[in-house]
Amino acid sequence: MNQGKSSTGNSNKVTASELAIHGGNPVRTSGWLNWPVWDADAEKPMLEVLRSGDWFRLRGTKVDEFEKAYAELIGARRVLATASGTTALETALHVLDVDAGDEVIVSPYTFIATYNVVFNQKALPVFADTDQETFTIDPNKIEEKINERTKAILPVHIFGLPADMDRIMDIAKRHNLSVIEDACQAWLAEYKNRKVGTIGDLGCFSFQNSKNIPAGEGGAVSGNDDALMDRCHSYHNCGRPYGKGASEYAGYPFLGGNKRMMEFQAVILLSQMKRAKRDFEKRLENALYLDSKLKDIPGILPYKLSEGATKSAYHIYPFRYKKAFFDDLPRVKFLAALQAEGIPCSSGYEAQYNDGFMDEVLNSRGFKKLFSQQRLKRYREELHELPENDQLTSEAVWFFQNMLLAERKDMDDIVDAVQKVYENRKQLL
Ligand SMILES: Cc1ncc(COP(=O)(O)O)c(C=O)c1O
Predict the structure, then answer these.
(1) Which of 1, 34, 119, 388 is 20 to 30 A away from residue 367, measured at CA?
(2) 3-class SS at 215?
């Protein structure tokens, strides 16, 4: 039973007419699927867990079940469930020994959590510029950022678009660095037919409310190395020993924290996973259709998959808006016109590193002790040396994953609306 509202579609296919933002008929008047959706099979186990009082993983079985099922789904040897994607990333950074005073190379085009987790380890997230076509980290820009303090590379498979993992793994190997895949938006996405999150040393996923596999909050670390995954388990469970050799220890022999997933989250996820593959295929099919149509509209540049990427998960469907083809119509006006036509859209991530939090971190007592004045000065300067990312943040346009779960005719509404705005752009100047 799908609890989300389905759209019925209502394309009038009229493109060369008055824009809806000026009182014309919108291309689409019906809505889109509400998110999240859930299925009735989650209700019984939810109630059972509630009534059992076994709400945390050390007394229940659901989190264990979820870990096994998710590992199977993505083809990982092991999965550890966590409270969130953020705690998954924190766990991965800790067990891969990213320590105070280290540096980690990250993609600047991402959600703020990717930087925050590095700062919270008292390490510096060092940005390597973005490849505008793929929206992911540009492998050509990574090596110039490596220095003696660099410990890891943290590529982000943003929107589910896989980063160029062969190039990244090669660089990591040559410089003896760890690789943590931020796959928080990339459930089931594939690079050379392997699921992302299984290629680097560890992968991290998010199941937060807006995500393609949602549970309100939730996360996972994936990996193929038992010793490393045992350490993850231990770290996420207050440092209690876990796995091979655990019986040799008593008490709390390791540093750790509480980053555990609740049984309720696992119940939702076990149900969500039954629809995950089907939804993935649907989004993929609709995204490829949008690619084939939108690319013919002047000024609309759909994303490209990076070299070796085989399938994206489409948490977002992104393209670049080139205003020169729209008589210099600012993106903000393009977006407003599209929204008025019944097509939800967003300009997406800003250059968040220009927001105030950098000052708080870089001026803190800890960072001043850990990094030289010279390094922090250079770091600040480098924030203004990301021309590709700056341009991308000024041109990106996002459609949301729930829209991609609609039907072909609904995708036609999207295409018709973009075409209509293009044809009538002069009305907006
Ligand atoms: C790219 C990326 N990394 C990390 C996270 C953090 O995940 P969570 O919100 O589950 O802590 C998110 C979630 O929004 C994300 O999109």
Answers:
(1) 388
(2) coil
Rg, Å, the chain Cα set:
23
- Of 77, 73, 85, which Cα lies nearest the Cα of 214? 85
Is residue 136 within 6 Å of ligand 1 at its C-beta? no
Q: Which residues in the chain come in under a pLDDT of 70? A: 1-16
Contact by Cβ (8 Å): 71, 79: yes
Q: In the beta sheet, which residues pair with residue 396? A: 320
Which of 158, 180, 206 for mutating ligand 1's site (highest number of atoms within 8 Å of CB)?
206
Residues in the chain: 429
Q: Are strands 316-321 and 300-302 parallel, antiparallel or unpaired?
A: antiparallel
Residue 9, pLDDT score: 41
For residue 57, give the 3-state DSSP assignment: coil
Cis before 36? omega within 30: yes
In order, the DSSP letters of 181-235 are EE-TT-TT-EETTEETTSSSSEEEEE--TTSSS--SS-EEEEES-HHHHHHHHHH
Instruction: Quote the ligand 1 centre to 314 CA distance (angstroms).
Output: 15
What are the tokens at 175? 């410089």
The 10s digit of each residue's pLDDT in 87-136 is: 999 999 999 999 999 999 999 999 999 999 999 999 999 999 999 999 99
Element (H, E) at 20: none
Q: Cis link prior to 387 (omega < 30° from 0)?
A: no
